[in-house]
């Protein structure tokens, strides 16, 4: 037995861990955090590729090539890459890198998998939510199904795809190490 | 004078009876016709059967009867074939009958161990539709009554889960997700309060997922 007698157990687990949450519509913070991670990931990959292109072009031409964000073709390339990134991953399994990290998945509004065409439509509609002063995201806060404007246009929803209760159990079952008990002090002289 | 007349009459009757051939007379009598004229019901009404039976020594008669011989002559199977058992049972008050049975006394006389040893459990089990039995069990209801957290935390099951699924990365991911979901819930509660609506937890899942996601 691995009973850890004497350790105080939390009186109540966090509300989010008391039920599975799997399949429930994802909230604003999770979606925003996932998007932020996606932006970081796709930007990092783009910058790496851009640096590689600069390096190869410099060697090939013998001149210093410095493609940077001020170049319109770099901006166009970044937008195209972002489009490919989101459309590909949403169409593949509904999960981008950020979505996978935060346990989010994009599904059809009836719970089915997102098709490639719908993923492309969602990716194209995604900027609209930004262009109207980010009001397109209000639906995540106010809607019954937490859908942003691009979700409504594409007929999609975003759900938690991870099991919060299983995570809680994994947390409880994690190995914990404690310092060995100090040996008993030898009897000293009477004070 | 009267005495002489009576003596003479008795003498005459005696002579007549001696001269009559009774058998011949009886042969002449048509008994069937005679019986047809007799009103048996009237005769029976006059008979006091109870008094008659009181005079009969039934015990003696019964003792003279060879019951074994009688029973040997009875074809029990044929007799039972004529009995309508269902009709017979319908007249029986089973509850009253069972109420009179001393069940504990019967059970005390039964050697249950010996009886169980004679049972072929494998054969019995082969006839049991385990799937049908399991279908009737509300496993979800049972699981809901379990304190899974206590089981995982205080038994070897926790170690098994830790060995099979945990790692530093998964621990960090679980922590990050839990925190973010907590923020989701805080924001949702705050918005619900602004809108003066009760918040009952995250909505969902989609209709198509209800059948596959156990949440």
Largest interface: A-B, 52 and 46 residues
Q: Can you tell me the overall shape of chain A?
A: globular
- SSE arrangement of chain A, N to C: HHHEHHHEH
The rounded distance between the terminal residues' Cα atoms of chain A is 43 Å
Helix tally of chain A equals 7
Number of domains of chain B: 2
- SS field, number of helical segments of chain B: 19
In terms of per-residue confidence, which ranges of chain A show pLDDT below 50 for 5 or more consecutive residues?
A: 1-14
What percent of the residues of chain B sit in helical stretches (DSSP H or I)?
over 70%
Largest sheet of chain A: 2 strands, antiparallel
What is the strand tally of chain B? 0
Identify low-pLDDT runs of chain B: none
The fraction of residues in strands of chain B falls at: under 5%
| Helix/strand order of chain B | HHHHHHHHHHHHHHHHHHH
Helical content band of chain A:
40-55%
Radius of gyration of chain A: 25 Å
What gyration radius of chain B follows from the Cα positions, in whole Å?
Answer: 49 Å
Can you give a write-up of this model?
The complex is a heterodimer of chains A (191) and B (215). By secondary structure, chain A is mainly alpha-helical. Chain A has one domain (22-169). Helices cover 50% and strands 5% of the residues of chain A. Chain A is built from seven helices and two strands; from the N terminus they run αααβαααβα. Chain A has helices at residues 28-61, 72-92, 97-101, 116-131, 138-142, 149-154, 164-172, and strands at residues 104-108, 156-160. The longest helix of chain A is centred in the first third of the chain and has 34 residues, at 28-61. The two termini of chain A are 43 Å apart. Residues 1-14 of chain A have low confidence and may be disordered. Chain B is mostly helical. Chain B has two domains: 2-125, no CATH class; 167-215, no CATH class. Chain B has helices at residues 2-19, 22-28, 31-37, 40-46, 49-55, 58-64, 67-73, 76-82, 85-90, 94-99, 103-109, 112-118, 121-127, 130-136, 139-145, 148-154, 156-165, 168-194, 207-210. In chain B, α16 packs across α17 (156-165). The longest helix of chain B has 27 residues, at 168-194. Chain B is rod-shaped and about 150 Å long. The model of chain B has no long low-confidence stretch (mean pLDDT 80). Chains A and B meet through α1, β2 and α7 of A and α16, α17, α18 and α19 of B.
């Amino acid at each position: 037995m691995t009973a850890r007698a004497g350790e105080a157990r939390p009186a109540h687990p966090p509300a989010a861990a008391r039920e599975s949450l799997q399949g429930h519509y994802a909230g604003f913070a999770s979606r925003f955090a996932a998007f932020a991670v996606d932006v970081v990931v796709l930007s990092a990959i783009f910058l790496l590729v851009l640096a590689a292109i600069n390096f190869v072009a410099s060697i090939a031409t013998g001149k210093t090539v410095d493609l940077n964000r001020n170049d319109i073709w770099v901006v166009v390339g970044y937008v195209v890459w972002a489009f490919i990134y989101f459309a590909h991953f949403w169409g593949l399994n509904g999960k981008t890198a950020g979505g996978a990290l935060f346990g989010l998945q994009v599904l059809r509004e009836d719970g089915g998998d997102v098709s490639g065409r719908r993923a492309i439509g969602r990716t194209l509609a995604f900027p609209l939510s930004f262009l109207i002063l980010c009001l397109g995201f209000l639906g995540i806060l106010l809607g019954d199904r937490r859908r942003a404007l691009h979700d409504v246009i594409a007929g999609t929803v975003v759900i938690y795809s991870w099991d919060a209760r299983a995570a809680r159990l994994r947390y409880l079952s994690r190995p914990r190490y404690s310092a060995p008990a100090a040996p008993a002090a030898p009897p000293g002289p009477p004070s | 004078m009267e005495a002489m007349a009576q003596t003479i009459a008795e003498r005459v009757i005696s002579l007549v009876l001696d001269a009559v051939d009774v058998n011949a007379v009886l042969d002449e009598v048509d008994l069937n016709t005679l019986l047809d004229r007799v009103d048996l019901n009237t005769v029976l009404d006059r008979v006091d059967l109870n008094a008659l039976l009181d005079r009969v020594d039934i015990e003696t008669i019964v003792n003279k009867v060879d019951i074994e011989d009688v029973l040997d002559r009875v074809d029990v199977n044929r007799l039972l074939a004529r009995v309508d058992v269902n009709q017979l049972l319908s007249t029986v008050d089973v509850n009253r009958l069972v109420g009179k049975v001393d069940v504990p006394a019967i059970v005390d006389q039964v050697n249950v161990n010996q009886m169980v040893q004679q049972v072929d459990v494998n054969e019995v089990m082969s006839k049991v539709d385990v799937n049908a039995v399991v279908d009737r069990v509300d496993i979800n209801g049972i699981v809901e009554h379990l304190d899974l957290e206590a089981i995982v935390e205080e038994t070897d099951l926790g170690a098994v889960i830790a060995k099979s699924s945990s790692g530093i990365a998964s621990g960090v991911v679980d922590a990050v997700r839990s925190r973010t979901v907590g923020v989701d819930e805080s924001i949702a509660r705050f918005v619900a309060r602004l809108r003066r609506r009760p918040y009952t937890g995250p909505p969902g899942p989609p209709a198509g997922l209800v059948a596959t996601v156990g949440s």
